[in-house]
Design brief:
With about 180 residues, the protein is mainly α. It contains 10 helices and no strands.
Amino acid sequence: MSPEELLDGLPEDSHQLVRNAYRLAEEKHASMKRKGSGMPYIVHPFRAARLLQPLHDHELVCAALLHDVVEDSDVTIEQIREEFGENIAFLVDACTKEEGRDQIQKVIEFSRQDKRAMLVKLADRVDNMTDHPSIMSEHLRQKYIEQGRQLLEACRELKIIFLVDQLSSALSQLFQ
C-alpha cells in the first residue's frame, strides 16, 4: 500500500499533494487500528481513496485520505486548508463529525455546493460497510443501514451515480 498506487491518471502536478495527504493520514493514524480487523487504520482512508481514484480527481483522492484526520487527531480544518487548499478542506469538513449535528444531513448540505462531498462520504461508507460485516455489532449494522438508505436517497436527489452500486451491494451484505 503506497500513495503511488493512487496517482494513475492524476495530473502530474498533483502527485506531491496526494503523497502529502497520504503521509499526513498515515502519521496521524499511526497508532490506530481498525476495529474488528485490527489492521492499521490507514488502510481505511487508502481504500476509500482507491474507490475514488478512477474519477481522476486529485482533490477527491486527497479528501478521502484525509477524511478522518480532523476528528481523529489534533489537525484542524484550518490546517488542512493551509496545506491542501480550500476545496480539499471543504470536502474534509463535509465528512468531519460535529457534535450536535447529524452527519448525513451535513454531508447532504455540503453536497449541494459540491457533489464531491457525497462521493467522499460514499467511499467512506462503502469501505466501512464491507470491512468485516460479519463481526459488526447489531447497533452499528442498523446505523449503517439507516445511513446507507439516507445516502442512496440523497444520491438520487443530487443525481449522483458513481459508487451507488457499491453502496447498494454493501447494504445488501448487511441484510444477510
